[in-house]
UniProtKB/TrEMBL annotation:
InterPro entries: Di-copper_centre_dom_sf, Tyrosinase/Hemocyanin, Tyrosinase_Cu-bd. GO terms for molecular function: metal ion binding; oxidoreductase activity. Keywords: Metal-binding, Oxidoreductase, Signal. Residues 1-18 form the signal peptide. Transmembrane segments: none annotated. The keyword ATP-binding does not apply. Pfam families: Tyrosinase. This is Tyrosinase copper-binding domain-containing protein. Residues 320-331 form the Tyrosinase copper-binding domain. It comes from Triangularia setosa.
Length: 407
């Protein structure tokens, strides 16, 4: 049966440095160049942790007890179904966002969407883009575990696995152990991009309409739209998009987009961009790669794999549950990049030496403190304020609470 694969204990690195992954991968799916790079990087991860321990830091975080975030298609059917149940549970919990500010938040899941909408500038400027989304995903994962009894951790999507045939993949096949399928065909003009023609938009694919299969086919999207790319979405009763606007979940699982996030692009991003500003700009597709048919940048290319409403809306995109898979992958990419030279990269923050750098946010961030590591990330009703530095190291950050790896 599809997805009912056998499991094998990874022992690729055992003998070289005496440690092995405690979770399994799907043996039917070959490793790509980024998977292999991550495996080769694990000795550096261990060395970094050893140094932290000797300095009295990250005392309770080891590779043996670290939480493990897996790629969706490496998880068992039961584990995937448990995750789906937890997301559906969160969508039934009462909201905590203040009703006077977010009347359209119908449940706890919507609370996170509202946070992304109202904190767009703080979440997306160069200084905060990486750590703020790490924080955002982490507290979402905590909500799934603490409020809905989920026993696992936030999965991610390895973009390369969805380039050739995403529709029959374990992520999009529409089964009870999937994150639902594509939307029905509803033509639209594609997704605008900041490049000259003919690369000024990502072409539409075969969806764009309501999702009709899988666990989220009856999901109600309430907040937004605020920056939709698909047609015929009813306007929100409030200009800020925070009113209640019930409608279906729409998707365009877009192969034209994800082609720009193949493993070769990600591998090049990690291995050929040694300073954080170069890494950040290339991550966002800046400057445009000449003569490249898929110049979107890994971030946008992965993001619009799940285009539609609200997944293709810059502000409301966490309204598609797959948003967290996308930013889980981006968090993984940042982590692998950091671990190539953790001494120099853990606390490297983009935007400090590039006054003309690309700003992914729609608003400017608040004024910076003298030490950028003292910048505050505040997710409002979703999670309280903390110093940016607390989110730079996933192995011992957040006052020692955070401790996870990707496999």
């Amino acid at each position: 049966m599809k997805g009912m694969y056998g499991v094998v204990q990874l022992s690729l690195l055992v003998g070289a440095w005496g440690w092995e992954y405690k979770t399994k991968r799907n043996p039917a799916i070959p490793l790509d160049v980024v998977d292999k790079l991550q495996d080769e990087t694990m000795p550096k991860v261990q060395a970094w942790l050893d140094k932290q321990h000797k300095a009295g830091k990250a005392k309770n975080c080891t590779l043996e007890n670290a939480a493990v975030r897996q790629e969706w298609s490496d998880m068992t059917v039961e584990a995937r179904q448990e995750y789906v149940r937890a997301v559906l549970c969160l969508q039934k919990k009462p909201p905590r966002a203040p009703k006077d500010k977010v009347p359209g938040s119908l449940n706890r899941f919507d609370d996170f969407v509202a946070t992304h909408m109202t904190q767009a500038g703080e979440l997306h400027g160069p200084t905060n883009l990486f750590p703020a989304h790490r924080y955002f995903i982490y507290v979402y994962e905590k909500a799934l575990r603490e409020e809905c009894g989920y026993k696992g951790y936030q999965p991610y999507m390895n973009y390369d696995r969805y380039v050739a045939d995403p529709f029959s993949s374990l992520l999009f096949d529409g089964s009870t152990a999937s994150m639902s399928g594509n939307g029905e065909l509803a033509p639209y003009n594609g997704i605008p991009q900041p490049f000259p023609r003919p690369y000024d938009r990502i072409p539409p694919d075969q969806g764009g309409g309501c999702v009709a299969t899988g666990p989220f086919k009856d999901m109600v999207v309430s907040l937004g739209p605020k920056g939709s790319v698909v047609r015929n979405i009813p306007a929100n009763p409030q200009r800020d998009g925070l009113g209640s606007n019930p409608r279906c979940l729409r998707r365009d699982v877009n192969r034209f987009s994800v082609a720009g996030a193949r493993a070769n692009y990600t591998h090049h991003l990690i291995t050929q961009h040694n300073d954080v500003d170069s890494f950040y700009n290339r991550y966002l597709g800046q400057p445009q790669l000449k003569n490249d048919p898929n110049p979107w940048g890994v971030h946008n290319a992965g993001h619009y794999l799940i285009g539609g409403d609200p997944g293709g809306d810059f502000y409301c995109s966490p309204g598609d549950p797959l948003f967290y898979f996308h930013h889980g992958m981006l968090d993984r990419v940042w982590w692998i990049w950091q671990m190539q030279d953790p001494e120099k990269r853990i606390n490297a923050v983009p935007g400090q030496t590039m006054p003309g750098g690309h700003n992914h946010g729609r608003k400017r961030q608040t004024a910076k403190p003298k030490n950028v590591l003292d910048s505050i990330i505040d997710l409002g009703w979703t999670a309280g304020p903390l110093r940016l530095e607390e989110m730079n190291d996933q192995l011992g950050g957040y006052g020692g609470e955070m401790c996870y790896i990707y496999v």
